[in-house]
Structure formats: structure tokens, C-alpha cells
Amino acid sequence: MKAMAFTSIVLDNTLANAVSKAKAQAIVEEAIDRTEGPVMVLERFAPWQEFIFSSKNEKANDILFVVFPSNRGGYNWQCVPASLGSFAQRHPVPQEWRGLNGKALQDVTGVASATFCHNAGFIGGADTLEDAIRLAEIAAQS
Length: 142
Known about the structure:
The chain is an alpha+beta fold. The chain has one domain. Helix content is 42%, strand content 15%. The protein has 4 helices and 5 strands; from the N terminus they run H-E-H-E-E-H-E-E-H. A 5-stranded mixed β-sheet has the order 1-2-3-5-4. A hairpin with a 5-residue loop joins strand 4 and strand 5. The longest helix is centred in the N-terminal third of the chain and has 33 residues. The N and C termini lie far apart (62 Å). 27% of the residues are buried. The model has no long low-confidence stretch (mean pLDDT 91).
């Protein structure tokens, strides 16, 4: 009976994971389809990296940055890696942004609600969706 209960839990978790992954893939595929240019916007967070690389949509190859709501408030922008699992980026952010926060980042970028750029430059944030998109667009044009 204990083995059967354990097997039931494992099966339930496996099915829940598959359903969650399918939902995330649908969210990302819809966002890829809506994307015009190098910045994809997710209306809610979903794991996206795997689906950018597995998508059959040609637009996925041109996406350099993904913007999504942060679980801490505001919005994040994130660089698309050069390949799945890579620490290199398809298009890195300007070196002078890296490690900056608040006013220092706002002064360098000219974006009013910019909040941070990670030291490695792969992710950053802003208080508003518009500003997160703007940061990603500026980085894409650099």
C-alpha cells in the first residue's frame, strides 16, 4: 500500500509537470507570434528559454530580449542566451550598464524607472512595463 501511494504521488507530479510545461509552451509560442522585432513580451512569467530554441516560428531566431513581470514587482528584461544552457548572450547589454542600480542606471540609460542591471548583464529591471521594454530596445540597438 505504501508503494502504491508513493507511485501515485510520483505519477500525479509527473502529469502536473507535463501539463504545466504544455501551458508554458503555449504562452511562449503565442508571445513569439505577437513579437515584431528583437523584444518579446510575456504578459505573465513562464519558463521561456527552452521554447525559444525549440520553436518552429522563424521569429524566435530574431528575439534578443524577453520582458516579463517580476515576482518582486515591476518588470524584468532578460537576454536570450546564445544557446540553451549557455551563459553567453545572443546580444549583450552595454558594458556600462552592468552592476548599476537605481539612479546610476537611470542616468546612463535615460530610462526613468530602470532599477538594476546584473553584474553579468544578462538580466535587469524597471518599475514599468514600458521602461523594461525600452531598456531591452536600447540594448538591442547598441
